[in-house]
């Protein structure tokens, strides 16, 4: 990536599935062995991403030669809500504001479609992720527990649009 101007945020599609899967695996590799339950991101493939794209939409940050960041989103259970997941930034591009740029584009897009709020889940074991989302305007509204666990494993976060 030559600079901020060279970055293009666009919709991710089926032709991007392999690149998105590789990006997600690289971005989440740092968490291997540190999360219980383990992140499902480490097993993403072109096929699993393709299946995900049948039910969800994606935004990607494209540096021209490669996809360097992504997120997935879908209508949430509550009216006007959008659930955000699989926010990933390539390790060598972290700390450059790409997650914030993706979220800003997502907000613009879903607001134009009538959405009133974004929700996401941040792992309790990853306080830096929660801090990032708080910086982007999300607030904790509850906790949730992955199946098979007897204590909360993630924070439910929400941002009003």
What fold name stands as the CATH topology?
Aminopeptidase
Give the tally of β-strands. Answer: 7
Order of helices and strands: EHHEEEHEHEE
Radius of gyration: 15 Å
What is the CATH architecture assignment? 3-Layer(aba) Sandwich
How many DSSP H or I helices?
Answer: 4
Q: Any idea what the CATH superfamily is called?
A: Gcn5-related N-acetyltransferase (GNAT)
Q: What order do the strands of the largest sheet run in, or round the barrel if closed?
A: 1-2-3-4-5-7-6
Strand content: 25-35%
Percent helix: 25-40%
Strand-pairing-aware structural class:
alpha+beta
Distance between the termini: 31 Å
Q: Summarize model confidence as the mean pLDDT.
A: 92
Overall shape: globular
Taking the sheet with the most strands, its summary is: 7 strands, mixed
Number of domains: 1
Uncertain segments of ≥5 residues (pLDDT<50)? none
